[in-house]
Amino acid sequence: MRIHSYDIYVDFNFKELTYNGTETISLETDGEIELDASGVEVSKVVVEGKEIPFETSDNKVKIKTTKISGNIIVNFSGKVKESLVGIYKAPYNGTYMISTQFESSHAREFIPCVDHPAFKAKFKLTIAVDKGLQVISNMPLKEMKEDKGKVIYAFHETPPMSTYLLYVGIGKFEEFKLQNNPEIIVATIPGKLSKAKMPAEFARDFIRKYEEYYGIKYQLPKVHLIAVPEFAFGAMENWGAITFRETALLADEKSGFSSIRRVAEVVAHELAHQWFGDLVTMKWWNDLWLNESFATFMSYKIIDMLRPEWDMWAEFLLDETAGALLKDSIPTTHPVETKVNTPEEVEQIFDDISYGKGASILRMIESYLGKDDFRKGISTYLQRYSFGNAEGKDLWQSLEEASGKPVSRLMPHWILEEGYPMVRVQIVGDEIVLTQERFGILPVPDKVYPIPLTLVINGERKDLLMESKTVRIKVGTVNQIKVNLGKSGFYRVLYENLDPVFKTDMTPEEQWGLINDYYAFFLAGKVSKDEYLKVVEFLMNSDHHLPVLELADQLSILYAINTEKYGKVARDFHVKQVEKWSRRDDPIGRRTYSQLAVNLSKMDESFARSLASRFQEYEQLDGDLRSAVAVAYAVSGGSQVLDEMLTRYKSSKFDEDKTRLLNAMLSMKSPHTVVNVLSMVFTGEMKKQDIIRSIQYSLFYPSVREAVWEWMKIHSRKVSEIYGGTGIFGRVMADVIPLLGIGREKEVEKFFTENPIKGAEKGIQQGLEILKAFSRVA
């Protein structure tokens, strides 16, 4: 069967949250037509003027017909959902907008369709709504007219695209427009437009740079960037109508560098998708990484080209590579390109592997091929498969053609196989002996990888492709050595002797790689606590934010795991670094100080009290400093300041401040207070979208973890249902369970075994596996 186009008319009852629709589907088929439809009621099917029989079962509409090359007409009706997928209600300030989230397989919850990424079609959308409401979709408005008391919005037809990229937004909007080619429009609910100019300008600059890099123009006349008041994901790349959480889109000069950088990265990511994912789409979800890994990699690359002072590749290691290295070191991992059979399985692979590992492999392959040949290969791939579908092998072919290097032979090992290697470095006489094995923080099957190795020995660089278990390099006396230059390779390095490493001139990326590797080795039981702390001591006084923030994260986790064992080194590090970074008044400096001060406030109440005194000037503070001051105020004041913070939280106009204050309240030491704050999700005082991540902020203190665990046992299923089977609950549980389960490992495992949550199984299992490693060092 082949689908050419959908011509869709939908009449909405905004008040009742229902709709009736008619669609004309232009197609070719040799036999029975099967459409996907979930929660959508089909009332009639017409072919060539005649009503024909159909059956509905298992979320399918089976239409009995013979060979057709033409149109079928389908009448249907549906309801707007309360969850955060499909077509759903997004409430705010006592009212709501209607929005859609169709990835990966939720378009079938709006219209009957062939809900499969390879069945690309053109969409012509017409929407009838009550007067006073506006409608946004993928394409510009073609015509607007009034009819029978309603307003009819008719949109231009889209290019061929997959069903999951269709968008409908209905409500009252304010818009900021940049006259550009394409036109850039930021749409918000009323009262939020003051933070729209910065993201619009980001979008303008990113589109220009992408067009230059790819050699392909943006394909639509406009792009909407839409802030949705309730949104399960960070953002969604609907072609020409991109949706965002407010905190991922809206920012201004007062927001603080963390928020500004986050907005830039998400906008750049979703705009990268307008080529990778929208213009060229994977054939099936096993190649999800073709969308997500590339959008992730390209977002950091394009910002680095335009804002080199932001040091985006340092952020890439912290944000993307770190999580991927951890999640890919446990038994419950999966290849970057992984077999998926059902929509439920698809939802569970929107994770650190499909995003972070894939992007890190792309960084490694770009380093191996060279930037020019890499770019040429990408441009060839996009031009060759425009408006169509592709597979991973198609990309490798394009990169191989551009570079002349054996990409098609090498990349399947990294993309089709799970895990990654650890390289042991030994100095034996006048030789360097390099031995590889698969790394795991728990036991995993061994294998050999083709590793693009980069190393410096006594100041001399060497590059080699390591395809065997062991490699020997004759060098003479070794005074200095470092392996994996710039941490560009997706592998870890374990040195038999660290002294020649400490003598090298290490870049911040290499310092990050060293401490990130040795923390993992410590969790895996491959090095002792003393060996790990030797590396900590070496980097204790580092002046660069990349290794400093990595150490801050590691030591705060270890502090939370066992304060008695790790408390002194964690406090000593934070005290030294807070004093150092408090003197920096640049954006990266303020962001780094803020994170250090947040951690130290939780470890040292006297520091928290001194910083909390600045809460009275909260509105005048830099956005990053607000985060630290709010946490300090909450930690030092406890339940006595809860009412004041709740009042400020409820009256905050923008979500970026609501999020800061919510995280601060969840940092309190009072178990009763924290679980009451978490329970605000059930009263509507907390947005549904915020509950999952909120749990992560409540896990620092053992007594609070105990209360949160009791809360989780009661509410875990209810919380998971908010996200409508998206897999988000499971992915966050992979990060929550390792701390939440400390000291109650068997109880946590037993609970989730006896109370399985559909669609979250993989993430929960990942969390239980990382918990075993955390328990080892507790």
Helix content: 40-55%
State the distance separating the first and last CA atoms: 58 Å
Shape: globular
CATH topology of the domain at 1-172: Immunoglobulin-like
CATH architecture of the domain at 1-172: Sandwich
The helix count comes to 25
In brief, what are we looking at here?
It contains 25 helices and 29 strands. By secondary structure, the protein is of the alpha+beta class. An 8-stranded mixed beta sheet has the order 5-4-8-2-1-11-14-13, with no helix packed on it. Strands 16-17-18-20-19 form a 5-stranded mixed beta sheet, covered by helices on one side. Strands 27-24-23-29 form a 4-stranded mixed beta sheet.
Report on this model:
With 778 residues, this protein is α+β, with helices and mostly antiparallel strands. Among the domains are: 1-172, tricorn interacting facor f3 domain (Immunoglobulin-like); 280-415, Neutral Protease Domain 2 (Neutral Protease, domain 2, Orthogonal Bundle), CATH 1.10.390; 670-778. Helices cover 43% and strands 22% of the residues. It has 25 helices and 29 strands. Strands 5-4-8-2-1-11-14-13 form an 8-stranded mixed β-sheet, with no helix packed on it. The chain has a 5-stranded mixed β-sheet with strand order 16-17-18-20-19, with helices on one face. A hairpin with a 2-residue loop joins β13 and β14. The termini are far apart. 53% of the residues are buried. Its EC number is 3.4.11.-. It comes from Metallosphaera hakonensis JCM 8857 = DSM 7519. GO terms for molecular function: metalloaminopeptidase activity; peptide binding; zinc ion binding. This is Aminopeptidase. InterPro entries: Aminopeptidase_N-like_N, Aminopeptidase_N-like_N_sf, ERAP1-like_C_dom, M1_APN-typ, Peptidase_M1, Peptidase_M1_aminopeptidases, Peptidase_M1_dom, Peptidase_M4/M1_CTD_sf.
